[in-house]
Amino acid sequence: MGVAEELVAAVGAEQVVTDPAVMAGYAHDEAEWAPHGAPAAVVRPRSTDDVAAVVRVCAATGTPVVGRGAGTGLSGAANADHGWVVVSFERMDKVLAVDAAEQTATVQPGVVNNALRARVAEDGLWYPPDPASAPWSTIGGNVATNAGGLCCVKYGVTRDYVLGMEAVMGSGEVVRLGRTTAKGVTGYDLVGLMVGSEGTLGLVTEVTVRLAPLRRGGEHTVVGYFDTLVQAGDAVAAVAAAGVVPSALELIDRFCLEAVDAWKNMGLAAEGAVLLLGRSDAPGAAGEAEAAQILACFEGAGAVMAMRSTDEEEAEALFEARRLAYPALERLGPLLTEDVCVPRGRVPEMLRLIEDAAARFDTRIGNIAHAGDGNLHPLFIVPAGDAAAKERAQEAFEVIVDGALALGGTVTGEHGVGLLKMRGAADELGPEVLAMHRALKDALDPRGVFNPGKVFA
Amino acid sequence: MGVAEELVAAVGAEQVVTDPAVMAGYAHDEAEWAPHGAPAAVVRPRSTDDVAAVVRVCAATGTPVVGRGAGTGLSGAANADHGWVVVSFERMDKVLAVDAAEQTATVQPGVVNNALRARVAEDGLWYPPDPASAPWSTIGGNVATNAGGLCCVKYGVTRDYVLGMEAVMGSGEVVRLGRTTAKGVTGYDLVGLMVGSEGTLGLVTEVTVRLAPLRRGGEHTVVGYFDTLVQAGDAVAAVAAAGVVPSALELIDRFCLEAVDAWKNMGLAAEGAVLLLGRSDAPGAAGEAEAAQILACFEGAGAVMAMRSTDEEEAEALFEARRLAYPALERLGPLLTEDVCVPRGRVPEMLRLIEDAAARFDTRIGNIAHAGDGNLHPLFIVPAGDAAAKERAQEAFEVIVDGALALGGTVTGEHGVGLLKMRGAADELGPEVLAMHRALKDALDPRGVFNPGKVFA
Question: PANTHER family under this entry (chains A, B) (predicted)?
């Protein structure tokens, strides 16, 4: 009996997909350059018990298993290899509880980020982590990758909001990790260890997140256009040096602006080569003061146009354009996305290094960035079918990774290592820390069934 | 050659203490009820290389080793057992770097919390985690226990501020974990795993912390006196239900107020049985509004006296009294301290349960609490030499632990499990999660030299 038949026996045929055409849509995430293979089966469980039954089959048969949210990942962490089992959480998509007094919510992993935000907003609450994929990506995927986002520069990333979880571990046992209280230090931080582990330690079946009060006041938006990437980087470094913590500080270059224009006809690219969007959500006079400081930093760095946005709808449209940049570029062809993060003061150098790599390897690189975090997303666009161009782009990719490490940065700020960044991650971590990773993986997943061969070799 | 001689050979006699009278002061923390034994040697290293040399000796000889900051811990995690090696970080007490633009500081573990705060304040920066022990406790100890504090209700705990670290692991190898960038997701969150691991996985030799801008405005303080603990608990639950996130919300009962009065002659206990201190540091009108909300919650819960404090010096004196409560009680005799944390809405029930346990076991229990976090510190005071009273207090202790778990709480909100809370921690975690702890410990400390027998069996 093959693994697909065993899965049918364990959870019923209704939950198991084996049609190759359907499975093809579940075999990979949006990291189009990462390899993947044909899974043996895709399971769409309805409960934790179902997930545990799947893991027991995989453990017994030695079949690798990979979890999957919406498949919006950008590093191949959700990719299946040949013969693997994919667990798609699309049917486990319920907000199980919102506790307004404790400011927590408990959800299934398949809940879409924006759906959670909308639900808790009804109770005057806010789930801050806001990846640009929030309209599609799920909390389970956000947890697996420790997703960041736009407002993380002020409010932190997914790990900062996960208090507790239920997970299925390597023998199919169901465990509860963490807590639901505001604080707690009983034992090791297993919740933090699971968050960002990219599916290599277990499958998360329920998540309790901390919430914040919904922001009541508006945000002050500062718009700046610059002639060069490096000037925009100078403005970012100036904001950091001024001690301002913006609620967002985003960068979009002309290439990305034009891609959004071509799709949505917004006329964004007419004003300058690089757009910086700064925001302050500090209440009252403090917000006015922060917006003025951000504006002064933009002007001091040589903005060709810098202004406070007085029209809230216009400001929202600009941020919407930022969120659309990635899908707009995807329309142009296969994308390779970087996610390097450097100290904020090194952003100008990093942007220069990216420009140099683009020129040196004759590669088209667009740039979007959570600039206030020093988290840059160079986007490599290659004409379909041009193998030489693809090879040059991959060389540029690795040069940029090395450059980020040389500047005291990291290979991945928020997307995860997956398959695409394993070489750089190994360099960043070094052999002793890689050995710690292997030891932890062997300790918690002794059969090696969870997403093997990802993140570290 | 004994382990002390080997240590002298490895790091020089100047760093190794073997005088039993001197060593006695290094053999335990402030958890006076936790057992300890006579160490074989105390080492006071000056560098990471020294620490690595000590760990290599311990690994080679199979000698347990326990790290030590200021010894202000309250659960016995820093206690030595017979024949152990104690590593005291008192000489590794330097602030190595403060980066104002990146808002980070890199320090040695022996830096005192308040010394770090003072140093970074020179650059307009703030290190938020503020355990009541901040004038004495060290960053290394804070990291080992994932220390909380007064402002954590709004600003989070130690783990939320540790970006990276250097540590000596089980074979004496020196590793760098984490990062210095604002974000980063390369590999497992080994930094978060080390924070709060109570010295059971390695010795931390350097820490890079994230800083925030120094708070510029003043804080609004709201003072409330209540007739009963449960009324004060109702006020805490009301603040949570109102969606206010205070910058501090502290509870001190009459027993503790009288102990501070007896020491410092402050006249605190005259006004009522329980004091609640609330604060808002929101800027401008938002702060005024939050203070008014807190005041309304105090009044609505039946405060006998509630008012906005208009005198900043007086407000500061009240918080100073809160910080002095623990040492004031220590003057009265051996203290046993709990650290249970429950959902904020369950604080009234938890306080009633503590009162009931005090009555049932005829035990004197004082109460201080980071009430806004639901983190309570019942303090058990027993006449010196009264063995029966001590036994009754220990029974009350366990009943309160069980009560906290039954209310959906945790055994320890911020002090750590150490030796005192192992029974409750085992109940809280359950056998599967305890097995995960043992697997992780074996994976990272295969020789079992780091603080064995603590936290979990």
Answer: GLYCOLATE OXIDASE SUBUNIT GLCD
